[in-house]
Amino acid sequence: MQKVKILLVGNDQVGKTALSFYLCNNYGKHTYERTIGVDLCLKNININGDRVQLHIYDSSGSKRYQHISEIYIKTSEVVILIYSVTDRQSFIDIEYWIECVSKIKSLNNLVIIGNKSDQGSFREISYNDGKELADKYQASFFECSAINGTNVELAFKTAAEKVINQYISEGYLDSDNVDFTIFNDYDTDDISCWGITLEVLKKLIGL
Q1: Alpha helices (H) in 13-82, listed in sequence order
Q2: Which domain holds residue 70?
Q3: 153-177 burial, b for 16+ CB within 10 Å, e for fewer?
């Protein structure tokens, strides 16, 4: 099975955990729980008839855990940057997060999500503002809702397709069984693994 590592970054309370929760569980999560370090969610999807497993790493928006997030930036294959359309500062800070990513790796595979599109009466950022920012960095752009599921699966599928298309164009993908990730033991159905263990962290940093 092909596997793709996706990292979610952005400020606290923009809905990173809620988006991955919706994708993996097919329903919205209405309560807020602060992410400590990095959480993991697995999701199996179909791309061009092939089964692909997404390894979705949900990073904390707190600078306190930024050193952990940097490890995952280095090993991720695609980064999804998330802001809330109801929070102008979270939108402004997307460029800060892009700078953090650019210091560690190239900006080849980026997706930008404006979350909470269902909260139209509280909107501070227009669709056009988000699209303009995404175009600046040649990133794919979606407005999503982690409550009603608008564009959630499409955004994550697009992120995975970016990785697959890159590997095809570079000639690295010539088999249906290419494993993109350092993990070889996750062939399960969709699961949420909230709270990554030390052993997984050791794998990521090569210990």
Answers
A1: 16-25, 66-75
A2: 2-205
A3: eebbbbbbbbbbeebeeeeebeeee
Helix (H), strand (E), coil (C) string for 168-197: HHCCCCCCCCCCCCCCCCCCCCCEEECCCC
CATH of the domain at 27: 3.40.50.300
State residue 170's pLDDT score: 75
**Distance between CA atoms of residues 154 and 150, nearest Å:** 9
Residue of 17, 89, 113 lying closest to 60 (CA atoms) = 17
Measured CA to CA, the distance from residue 179 to residue 156 in angstroms comes to 18
Report mean pLDDT in 10-residue bins for the chain, 207 residues. 90 91 78 59 88 87 57 88 97 94 89 96 97 97 96 96 85 49 39 43 46
- pLDDT at residue 194, rounded to an integer: 41
How many helices (H) and strands (E) the chain has is answered by 7, 7
Q: For the chain, how long is the longest CA-to-CA vector?
A: 49
**C-alpha dist (Å) from residue 135 to 38, 97, 123:** 28, 16, 21
Q: How far apart are CA 116 and CA 82, in angstroms?
A: 10
| Number of domains making up the chain | 1
pLDDT at site 133: 97
What type of residue sits at position 108? Answer: N
Question: What's the Cα-to-Cα distance from 76 to each of 13, 48, 125, 128, 184, rounded to whole Å?
Answer: 22, 22, 28, 28, 15
**69: Cβ contacts below 8 Å, ≥ 6 apart:** 7, 9, 38, 59, 60, 100
pTM over 0.90: no
